[in-house]
Amino acid sequence: MPPEAPNSREHVLVVGPGRDFPARIREAQPGTRTTVICQLDYLGKVRTPGENARVIGVRGDAPDQEWIDLAAAAHALDPFTRIGTFGERDQDHYGVVAEALGLRAHTVETVTLVHDKAAMRTRLREAGVDTTACARVADLDELRAFVRANGTPCVVKPVSSSGSAGVTKVSYESELATAFERAADSYLGLSNTGVLVEEFFEGPQFSVEAFSEAGEHQVVAITRKYSDPESFVELGHVSPAELPAEDTEAISDYTLSVLDALAVEFGPTHTEIVLGDRGPRLIETHVRMGGDMIPTLTLEATGVDIDDCTARQTLGEKVLPGIRSRLAEPRPEPHSSAIWFASVGAPGTLDEILGLKEARALPGVTEVEPMVRPGAKVGALESSVSRVAYARALATTAHEAVEAARAAVTSLEFQVRVRSSAPSTI
Question: Stretch 286-298: mean pLDDT, rounded?
Fold first, then answer.
């Protein structure tokens, strides 16, 4: 039998519920312990909580100092060696806690910039990276003034939010009041810090998955993104995007300049780009891996496991050389990986999803799964949580992969009960 791995002395503080990363970190280095600190409302999202050294719940309206004091009390009892955050929930507290405990992390400024889209635009303009016209507006009059100065179409959205919630494309001034109200509303219990209006760019959208180490950045994959033209909610993704070499280079160079301007030092980043007549323009960026199973698409397309690299880097391992080595290897066919999402238009209660078995048997399809359970309220496509199912597919080309995933989703039937009426099939 192989010798047992030595017990690690690592103790990682995970800020936010952490998805599956506490378990990944413990598995990456046997003997490592994890403690999770998150909002009380997110405690139910902590997976296998008993496998952590402790789980600390904090009131949602607690000031940063309370987060610091609670983390410091645990640190005094059982010192942390490292800190990590793996999503946007509670990420705003991560930098201040790390700074107070003397642990290596993204700076408070960097985290603030990626969360506050208005502040991020200002920084990028000062750095000469992006000159998108934008403004933080406090009321409808300020929003109208921006539009009269810059014209339409424009995008109105929350300064800080996620999941495409509260985002509206405005083509006519008569739509501004509704757009402002939608953007100003809170989302998932998070109060927004204002409304942002930006000029709108026509063009295909992409997300760039990159990884950084010691301030050096590497683009891992460029993923084509398909969004609903009205709500901007993402309908599907495919990786790698099929692009001319010059567009790939332009998107990559632009993304690295964004990360430099925001002083990103390490870890995964997910940057959303529109490629228009004036070249790449930023939608937003994040100091985390992408959602919508994009890390899985990236793994199938490139062989790079972003989640695994994140866990190992959190424990101090250098991962960038391995990422670059894997990217240099030829990929087997098929390696174009796509995901597509389903939604229902009519509001009601989901009774049943029909055709899952048949959809899973379609050529190229690798996975078809519901995203909500029977009994869930469903309706219009307002944010990413409005989607009800997804399908993934592998193919030789991006187009074939997208078509296979879409075919699987299209083949599903959704029985939705509208009020007290009999179920209707969608």
Answer: 97
- Cis upstream peptide for 158 (omega within 30°): no
Q: Which of 164, 165, 244, 151 is nearest to 201 (CA)?
A: 151
Q: Which of 256, 252, 233 is nearest to 243 (CA)?
A: 252
Contact in structure between 340 and 225 (CB atoms under 8 Å): no
Confidence of residue 4 (pLDDT cuts 50, 70, 90): very low
**Taking residues 275-302, what's their average pLDDT?**
96
CB 413 within 8 A of CB 351: no
Asked if 75 contacts 101 with a C-beta cutoff of 8 angstroms, the reply is yes
Count of residues for the chain? 426
Residue 71 has pLDDT above 80, yes or no: yes
Helix (H, G, I), strand (E, B) or coil at 39: strand
The three-state DSSP-derived secondary structure of 190-250 is: ECCCCEEEEECCCCCEEEEEEEEECCEEEEEEEEEEEECCCCCCEEEEEECCCCCHHHHHH
Instruction: For residue 122, give every residue at least 6 positions away whose Cβ sits within 8 Å of its Cβ, in sequence order, or none.
Output: none
Q: pLDDT at residue 121 above 60?
A: yes
Cβ atoms within 10 Å of 254's Cβ, excluding its own: 19
- State what percent of residues in the chain have pLDDT above 90: 80
Closest CA to 188 of 295, 68, 45: 45
CA atoms of 288 and 371, how far apart (whole Å)? 22
pLDDT tens-place string over residues 56-65: 999 999 999 9
> Is 190 exposed, middle or buried (CB count within 10 Å of its CB: 0-12, 13-18, 19+)?
middle
What is the C-alpha to C-alpha distance for residues 170 and 403, in angstroms, rounded to an integer? Answer: 30
- Here the tokens at position 360 are 């899973």
> Picking from 16-30, 113-127, 190-204, 276-290, which range would have the lowest pLDDT averaged per residue?
190-204
- What is the 3-state secondary structure of 113-181? HHHCHHHHHHHHHHCCCCCCCEEEECCHHHHHHHHHHHCCCEEEEECCCCCCCCCEEECCHHHHHHHHH
Rounded CA separation 256/100 (Å)? 29
pLDDT for residue 117: 86
pLDDT recorded at residue 345: 80
Dist CA 75 CA 77 (whole Å) = 5
Q: What is the mean pLDDT of the chain?
A: 92
Whole-structure pTM value: 0.89
Please check whether residue 299 is in contact with residue 223, taking contact to mean a CB–CB distance below 8 angstroms. Answer: no
